[in-house]
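Go through this one:
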Amino acid sequence: MRFLFALLAGCGTLAVTPPPPSPVPSPRAYRILVASESGDIVTHLVWDGTALRTAKVVPVGVMPADIDGPHNVTVAPDGSAWYVTIAHGTPYGSLWKFAAGSDSLLGRAPVEMFPTTIALTPDGALAFVANSDFHGDHPRVNVVTIVQTATMTPLTNLPACDMPHGVKVNHAGTLVYVSCMNSDEILEIDRQSFRILRRHKTGEASPHMMHGTAPRPGPGGGAPHDCAPTFVSVSPDDRRLYVACNHGNTLQVLDAATLDLVKEIPVGAGAYNVEPSPDGRWAIVTNKEAQSVSLVDAQALAEVARIPTSKPLPHGVAYAPDGTAAFISAESIGADPGAVDVIDLKTRARVASIAVPRQPTGITILQEL
């Protein structure tokens, strides 16, 4: 024993072989969900970093002999369910809730005329649905339907504005923003009281209008609009709002605290949808009349690239969870299928596409459980 201790002392500290490193957990798998407005389907896509493939097609709608018109799709914050707006029905549209994984229908909530976009509170308890009601005379006041998602029960129809289209809840879950196409304004709604707190004008001879840009007629030949905001999004830190001006061909950036205009950025014709990246570095605008998307540097507040899409009518935007790519839904014309394009955010180029039938519109990411 003495000999052993002496040997150890002479050798100094023993080298200990470290345990093998724990395996690095791989990122959760995800799917891209795309609603096809003229086909009554929601397509599940998978991206392997090189190509897109179709994993599943889920039929939606209640009238087999007619088109029900799914428009927007979104996912519960905990990933347990996904929601889709159905534009047509008896007598109005509806909001449908599906279980993630099984894609079984969990419930339906009646809403109003032609529901477009959906915004969920961060706790997933409430859904705010903009009812655009594209048909009929203007001006008029349309409503935002507020739904309790656990039971799929409508709580109220909030009289909002003329043609609400985009709706987003801030990340704190305290405020809800609505873009109103035909009344050229942004609404701010209190999540707790369901009251409209502020209205901000985005057009109608606004002093912020770009020089040389003429107002265009409103829907149905109504009053002209300078902006006609189709969509509003909120920066990840809740400090800024991004407003897509469909008639102004610009992206308006607003200070969320004051609703003052920070900057108006020229983008492509027919700016339609806008989404900031989760890291706050980018904002992407789909240009529905220019067959392109505008990549906007959210710090410099400047368009840094305009990337052509594979189909004529780019619609929605979703980001890969790892921040490397953006997925763009693009509608087509006539019988030609639409597509989902992949934009590499490093190279600022379209790197892949897949055909998606029947006018793909809403797009979102479902992280699988």
